[in-house]
Specification:
mainly alpha, 5 helices, single chain, 2 strands
Length: 153
């Protein structure tokens, strides 16, 4: 998994870091300016998108929020941390463990958001944990009840 670690060329690392930083900011703006009535994968609308990044941002935010709910906001933070590593040309130790940790953290956050009773975001349009959180919370609740699911998550 050498593709996550910076190269030996410092200027190239800085350029990649700036691109990753821009991607993190764009993703953050997509999620932050999400509107349930924007045209997206499952919403047909002729209105001009409210999303700050336009139709692409509306679709990207819809996909992330429907899949992971509020846990989708971890993606820009993780991209920002990766950008910082690239800008500083710091080695990225144990990439497989870090990727696994990021996935587990995101899934755990989605599950915990879904365990809150009746909590929906954006005017009731989406469950707080998204589809992944609802599925994981339901599965864990069936195994160890709500308190156990919160502890496991």
């Amino acid at each position: 998994m050498r593709f996550l670690s910076p190269t030996s060329h410092q200027r190239l690392n800085e350029a990649v870091g700036v691109v990753l930083l821009a991607a993190a900011i764009l993703l953050w703006l997509c999620l932050l300016s999400y509107h349930a009535q924007d045209a997206s994968w499952n919403t047909a609308s002729g209105a001009r998108p409210v999303n700050l990044i336009g139709p692409v941002g509306a679709r990207l935010a819809d996909l992330g929020l429907q899949a992971f709910g509020l846990a989708a906001f971890t993606a820009p933070v993780l991209l920002l941390l990766l950008a910082w590593k690239w800008v500083r040309s710091s080695p990225f130790g144990a990439p497989a463990a870090r990727i696994l940790g990021a996935v587990l953290f995101t899934m755990s956050a989605a599950t915990l958001a879904s365990l809150a009773p009746g909590w929906r975001i954006f005017g009731g349009a989406l469950p707080a944990g998204g589809l992944a959180g609802v599925l994981l919370a339901g599965w864990l609740t069936g195994l160890v009840n709500v308190a156990g699911a919160a502890i496991v998550a």
